[in-house]
Design brief:
Elements: E1 21-27, H1 34-42, E2 49-56, H2 62-67, E3 74-79, H3 84-94, E4 99-102, E5 108-109, H4 113-123, E6 129-137, H5 144-149, E7 155-157, H6 165-174, E8 180-183, H7 184-189, H8 202-213, E9 216-227, H9 245-248, H10 251-254, H11 262-282, H12 286-296, H13 307-313, H14 318-331
Length: about 350
């Protein structure tokens, strides 16, 4: 797709006042997809926006595609490679609008993404953000089972001491930067995205802090399209995925947690440790699984989902079992998408 094919949206003049929405697009070696993402922003029914593309040291020419766009609402920033969290934060610091979204360069927004999510934020002034549903690119399927498995009902959700940890796990599983429109001040208040060299879970660390302190509005309407072939988070890995930063250092989220929600957060961390240790065991990394199990789990947690699997994953005995499981997976149907499973 050549940059010359870009069609400018209805707004072609210069922006003389603060835009309504800032959209940050982190870009790293997505030359094949970035124009599609940017075209989806130009096609929004809300035209009062600025688009900040942050090139994170691309080597495939994607930055030149973004630079060639002739629309005054679009601008390109360049930096040396520092990871997705740092790229999003760079754009966040430049954002001028009261609302902000973060569209990955291999995803796209459907034309009514902004109009429908903005209406919900205006209707629910206490909501820090709106998280919507999506469809898959290619194919257009919406993973309805994903919505059900996340135990998340449509509406405004605020955590309380009575919230179940599994519901909090579902909230994190459902969130993705490309499906969220937030109030800029809320994102800034909680420190933006985790950086510190992380390449996985940097968004979850931010959303956890926001969940613990402000309501979110969840709904399943398909307003975004996520490329399940291009996404680094959704592809089938050949090795274990990195561990989420809040499991490596729980102070990342503990320091932002209200005292009354500390028991809920600790149960959430146990649940995520169980699942992550099980994934590590699948890939034969029993030492990593053992470290998580020792840090977060005790015999009193035996009733938690994946507890037995996490314990098994913490032993060298898991290595032949994991090898057998991977072999069976390769022989059978395509593995399930690898993301923050509920």
């Amino acid at each position: 797709m050549a940059a010359a094919a870009f069609e400018v949206g209805p707004h072609t003049g210069s922006i003389t006042q603060m835009p309504l929405v800032s959209v940050v697009v982190p870009l790293y070696n997505k030359a094949r997809y970035v124009l599609r993402a940017l075209e989806s922003l130009a096609a929004q029914t809300v035209s009062d926006l600025e688009v900040i593309v942050v090139d994170d040291g691309s080597t495939d020419g994607g930055d030149r595609i973004a630079e060639a766009i002739r629309d005054s609402r679009f601008r390109l920033l360049r930096q040396t490679n520092a990871g997705p969290g740092a790229a999003r934060n760079r754009g966040l610091r430049e954002a001028r609008a009261p609302f902000v979204g973060f569209l990955d360069a291999d995803d796209r927004w459907l034309p009514h993404f902004l109009s429908e999510n903005l209406a919900l934020l205006e209707r629910h002034p206490t909501a820090a953000a709106v998280c919507c549903g999506w469809c898959e690119d290619p194919g257009g399927a919406f993973p309805a089972k994903w919505w059900r498995d996340c135990n998340t009902n449509e509406g405004l959700v605020a955590l309380s001491p009575g919230t179940k940890a599994r519901d909090m796990v579902g909230m994190i599983a459902y969130t993705n930067p490309s499906t969220i429109l937030a109030r800029t001040q809320s994102v800034l208040k909680w420190g933006g995205f985790y950086e510190a060299g992380s390449r996985y879970g940097e968004d979850a660390a931010l959303y956890l802090k926001m969940f613990l302190n402000e309501p979110f509005y969840f709904h399943p309407r398909q307003l975004a399209a996520m490329d399940v072939e291009a996404s680094e988070l959704c592809r089938n890995y050949r090795t274990a995925r990195p561990v989420e930063p809040f499991l490596l250092d729980e102070s990342v989220v503990l320091d932002a947690c209200p005292p009354e929600l500390l028991p809920l957060l600790r149960q959430f961390l146990k649940a995520r440790a169980c699942k992550t240790a099980s994934v590590l065991g699948y890939w034969g990394d029993w030492r990593g699984a053992n470290e998580l199990a020792r840090r977060y789990l005790s015999a009193r947690d035996w009733q938690m989902p994946f507890f037995a699997l996490a314990v098994l994953s913490s032993s060298p005995l898991v290595m032949p079992i994991g090898w057998a499981a991977r072999s069976l997976t390769q022989l059978g149907a395509a593995p399930a998408r690898d993301s923050r499973e509920a």
